[in-house]
Design goal:
Prot-tyrosine_phosphatase-like, alpha/beta, 28% helix, FAD/NAD(P)-binding domain, hydrolase activity, 16 helices, five-stranded mixed beta sheet, FAD/NAD-binding_dom, 556 residues, single chain, Protein-Tyrosine Phosphatase, Chain A
Length: 556
């Protein structure tokens, strides 16, 4: 923990973990304020975990979530009231401490001199100069004052952002690029399914963000609060402003754990897990090993979600372990999907159904998880019948693997860049924004109809890189993306159905059928997933090497 004192009785820090609470108690802290909304990243403990640990140690914990960079005057007032009413000393946290510091600074406006507020924050390591300008500007952030300006600004340092930056630099060395991302760690998220199956260890999927950032790129370690596309500007956490000539938006998506009643209170306990969280994928494997019979439920929410096959991958690999451990006969496996079919591309369904039948999986379509009672070990679903009528069903479980509903990040949904559903509105072929010619988007937050996978980002990154350079006058022609996505469906340990498809569900294999027939389970596809794709990701895709990913050019 990096604890910083702001004022008598008040400290701030970055993301807390349940294990940190005992150290805070021993240091004399009596209360905790959480200013980070649940679901911002895949390595984030939920507030319920922190609250439970605080209660165990006789501390108070309060949830005052604030979207990145969007601290309102009302939230600052609530923060000020908590400072008055909670026992001291207390500690507030968010991702980095910036939001908590901003809340404090705004709550003190009028109570102490502005210079004193800025100095106190500076001594704690936080630059509140932009917040001071907001206070002086009657609560508005002046976008005519920018802390930085770059030729290309990329929002998001995940797979899409790093790959695009590297593709740009491979084509145009020396280009002035900045990546905005507050995270300390970059994750290979496709590996989390294999962590949940005991094939990988979780640390294998994590590299430091600093080591992952391409050489020569400016890393702005912050989070975006808002877009000002008419001014070619971004507002960051702490009210800072960054300007750009070309903007690339790829911030990923948000896991909406709060959309399922009772889930956040029991996730990681009572047999409830999810491979969509870094720290819970090992718990999945623990539950799979411990289960010696009973009912195991796997869920899939409404689309879109990242890697639509991931809910099934967890189920098939778990079933395979139970078969190898000779407890499959005593285990009832149930799959509850909000969708109407097992997989959206029909060519791959026959092979999957062979495993569904072999594992005796009970398929339930049109079922959306709405509530989890961890103590009672029950899951409740809203179900839609074939005639359109709706109802609900509650099922007991011994193990529950949950895939949460997923939405675009809050700062995207609330912006002029979003379509009616909240996703970034781009042309599906060029990935250029439909309204703003100097903005492109790729990855999970774009409204393209492709599968939201790292494989899709690998194909999209060179397209965006070329088209951004063309917009800068440094390349000719237009690169096109055809909707490629890949989903290696791990149907058993050692075999994969390698689903590859483009827009419209067109099967788009990368290999000849004599080498890998994607419609059939393949050992070679497993070797590709386990041994080849991870180094290809770290040393190829993220380094700007475009093996099987060079874009098609039009208008030459």
């Amino acid at each position: 923990m990096d604890i910083r004192s702001l004022a008598p009785g008040l400290s701030v820090t970055g993301q807390l973990h349940p294990d940190d609470v005992v150290a805070l108690k021993n240091a004399g802290y009596r209360a905790i304020i959480c200013n980070r909304p649940d679901g911002e990243s895949g390595d984030q403990p939920l507030f319920a975990d922190i609250e439970r640990a605080a209660q165990q140690h006789g501390m108070q914990a309060h949830y005052l979530p604030v979207d990145t960079g969007k601290v309102s005057d009302e939230q600052a007032e609530l923060f000020g009231k908590l400072l008055e009413t909670l026992p001291h000393p207390l500690i507030a946290y968010c991702r980095s401490g910036m939001r908590s510091t901003t809340l404090w600074a705004l709550s003190q406006a009028g109570a102490q001199p502005l210079e004193q507020i800025v100095d106190a924050a500076r001594e704690a390591g936080f630059d509140m100069a932009s917040v001071a300008r907001r206070i002086a500007n009657q609560g508005r952030t002046p976008v005519n004052v920018a802390e930085a300006a770059h030729q290309v600004v990329i929002v998001g340092g995940g797979a899409a952002g790093i790959a695009t930056a590297s593709s740009l630099l491979a084509r145009e060395p020396g280009l002035d690029i900045a990546i905005i991302d507050p995270a300390d760690v970059h994750y290979y998220q496709p590996g989390w399914t294999l962590v949940g199956a005991g094939v990988f260890e979780a640390p294998q999927t994590a590299h430091s963000m600093g080591a992952t950032m391409p050489r020569g790129v400016h890393w702005i370690k912050s989070a975006v609060a808002a877009f000002e596309p008419e001014r070619n500007a971004l507002i960051l956490d702490g009210c800072r402003v960054v300007r750009y000539q070309q903007l690339i938006v790829c911030p990923g998506l948000k896991l909406d754990w709060q959309a399922i009643e009772g889930l956040s209170e029991t996730l990681g306990r009572n047999g409830v897990t999810s491979n969509y969280l870094y720290h819970l994928a090992p718990y999945t494997w623990q539950l799979v090993q411990q289960l010696r019979g009973g009912r195991a439920i796997f869920t899939q929410p409404p689309m879109p979600i990242k890697c639509a096959g991931a809910p099934q991958k967890a189920m098939y690999l778990s079933a395979d372990h139970w078969r190898r451990s000779e407890v499959l006969g005593d285990t009832q496996i149930e799959f509850y999907s909000a969708g109407a079919v097992l997989f959206g591309v029909a060519d791959y369904v026959p092979a999957l159904m062979e495993y569904v039948e072999a594992y005796r999986i009970d398929l339930n379509f049109g079922h959306t998880l709405t509530r989890v009672d961890g103590a009672a070990r029950t899951a409740t679903f809203r179900c839609v019948a074939a005639d359109g009528s709706t109802g609900s069903v509650t099922r007991p479980f011994d193990m529950l693997h949950v895939v949460p509903p997923q939405v675009s990040p809050d700062f995207v949904r609330a912006s002029a860049l979003a379509d009616a559903a909240g996703w970034i509105d781009v042309d599906p072929a060029t990935l250029r924004h439909k309204s703003w010619e100097n903005i492109h988007a790729l990855g999970d937050a774009a409204n393209t109809s492709n599968a939201k996978t790292a494989a899709a980002a690998r194909k999209q990154a060179p397209v965006v890189a070329h088209n951004v350079l063309a917009a800068l006058g440094r390349a000719k022609g237009t690169a096109l993306y055809h909707g490629y996505g890949s989903c290696p469906l791990t149907v058993e340990r050692g075999r994969i159905v390698l689903a590859e498809f483009s827009y419209g569900g067109k099967v788009t294999p990368s290999f000849p059928s004599w080498l890998i027939d994607g419609t059939r389970p393949s050992r070679l596809a497993w070797l590709l997933k386990e041994r080849i794709l991870p180094p290809l990701y770290w040393k190829g895709m993220l380094k700007g090497r475009e093996w099987l990913a060079k874009p098609e050019l039009a208008d030459l």
